[in-house]
Specification:
- The protein is an alpha+beta fold.
- It folds into 3 domains: 123 residues, Rossmann fold, CATH 3.40.50; 164 residues, 2-Layer Sandwich (D-amino Acid Aminotransferase, Chain A, domain 1), CATH 3.30.470.20; 61 residues, 2-Layer Sandwich (Dna Ligase, domain 1).
- Helices cover 32% and strands 23% of the residues.
- It has 14 helices and 15 strands.
- The strands form 4 sheets. The protein has a 5-stranded antiparallel β-sheet with strand order 13-12-11-14-15. Strands 5-2-1-6 form a 4-stranded parallel β-sheet. A 4-stranded antiparallel β-sheet has the order 7-10-8-9, with helices on one face.
- Helix 2 packs across helix 14.
- The chain is globular and about 65 Å long.
- The N and C termini lie close together (10 Å).
Length: 381
């Protein structure tokens, strides 16, 4: 793991008046870029050939007399493959341009984690050492973190023979490498029948099935709680901020639930591929409980992954009929659904800052405050 001292030494050579925000062009890149230009920074997006037009053409920044009048992407660097940005000369260019890099899920999906941890010598705005906790099956993954924090999560069923109620089987899709091959089951027989069907159809693999996680299915709505931890908070300020909440559109699942039960029965099993997000709020009596979840997770992160979380993180939750929260996933970086809030802001972030405060903008504002306070070392790893 690249040490904090090395990263701080690299950032010490930056021209603080010319900081640029960099991000891999996928996932939540538009939110990061839009928030950065709102706070006065120029942006560089690192694209893959064949996927660059969204950023290079349609959201290209136009400036007149230095003032932004359109778009949010100042510069695009296009590679044949995303992982080419790891080349030493490309990292050197980033440092020469004073880039602070915002990691997102696509960054950790297209770039091997060991390369990010050991070889990416560019300051990350966020927690480099926490990124690995997203990988289910790691010794100290987010489930381990939730256990250490004493936080609620769906009960794990270790053996398919022990399935005696509705459960979800969590594993990767065989062909869509970044997507899910999830399926639900009520018992051992249904587990066998559905898994064999998915294997025959090439949706999942034997290897993935053997290491799949089986969890009790929580019946209730899904709320992705988009939090932010501010390491620059003053003593009389709450460092944990709830900026907003989103939930997912999933294909082909969302199409299935609009059909009568008979048609659902006759069709093949649905898939859980995320294709969009929408915004939500919680009833106010539940907000304090949501903050309690975040405070416990932040404390556990600080204890087990020093210096702990920096900036954006997302607790993905279900709420049951008794209004109990269960955390089923944790993103220790900017969440995948934050684009729904860009420019207009999050409901709670707006109320807190009386501005259109998206996750991208809140991240950029932290960068700006760190520059003004000469404390960039406190927000990077």
């Amino acid at each position: 793991m690249i040490g904090l001292d090395e990263i701080r030494e690299l950032s010490g050579e930056y021209d603080k008046k010319r900081i640029k925000v960099g991000v891999l062009a996928s996932h939540s890149a538009l939110d990061a870029a839009d928030g950065a230009v709102e706070e006065g920074f120029k942006t560089i997006l690192y694209c893959q050939k064949g996927r660059e037009r969204t950023y290079e053409t349609y959201f290209k920044a136009k400036r007149e007399d230095g003032n932004l009048v359109r778009g949010c992407v100042d510069e695009c660097i296009v590679y044949d493959k995303f992982n080419m940005l790891m080349a030493e000369k490309e990292q050197e260019k980033m440092r020469d341009k004073n880039v602070l890099f915002i990691p997102n899920r696509s960054f950790t999906s297209y770039i091997p984690l060991n390369k990010i941890e050991d070889d990416f010598k560019v300051p990350l705005v966020g927690s480099r050492n926490l990124l690995r906790t997203e990988e289910r099956g790691e010794t100290r993954d987010y489930y381990w973190m939730l256990e250490q924090a004493g936080l609620p999560f769906p009960e794990r069923i270790k053996d398919p023979k022990d399935i005696n109620e509705l459960c979800i089987v969590k594993l990767h899709h065989a062909k869509k490498k970044l997507e899910r091959g999830f399926f639900t089951v009520n018992g051992p027989t249904e587990y066998h029948n559905k898994s064999q069907e998915l294997l025959r159809n090439g949706v999942i693999t034997e290897d993935a099935l053997s290491s799949a996680r089986i969890e009790r299915y929580i019946i209730g709505p899904v709320f992705n709680l988009d939090f932010f931890y501010n390491p620059l908070a003053e003593k009389n300020e709450a460092a944990v901020e709830l900026l907003g909440i989103d939930w997912r559109f999933e294909t082909s699942l969302d199409g299935y639930v609009r059909l009568p039960a008979k048609q659902q029965w006759d069709l093949s099993l649905p898939e859980y591929t995320v294709c969009g997000h929408n915004s939500a709020t919680l009833r106010e009596s539940l907000l304090e409980r949501a903050f309690e979840l975040a405070e416990k997770w932040v404390a556990a992160a600080a204890k087990h992954y020093k210096p702990g979380i920096i900036g954006a993180f997302c607790l993905q939750t279900c709420v049951d009929k008794d209004l109990n929260f269960y955390i089923y996933d944790v993103a220790p970086r900017i969440g995948g659904g934050t684009n729904v809030h860009m420019n207009v802001g999050h409901a709670y972030g707006n109320a807190l800052y009386h501005a259109n405060m998206s996750t991208g903008r809140r991240t950029a504002r932290m960068i700006r405050e760190a520059v003004e306070q000469d404390s960039i070392e406190d927000i990077i790893t």
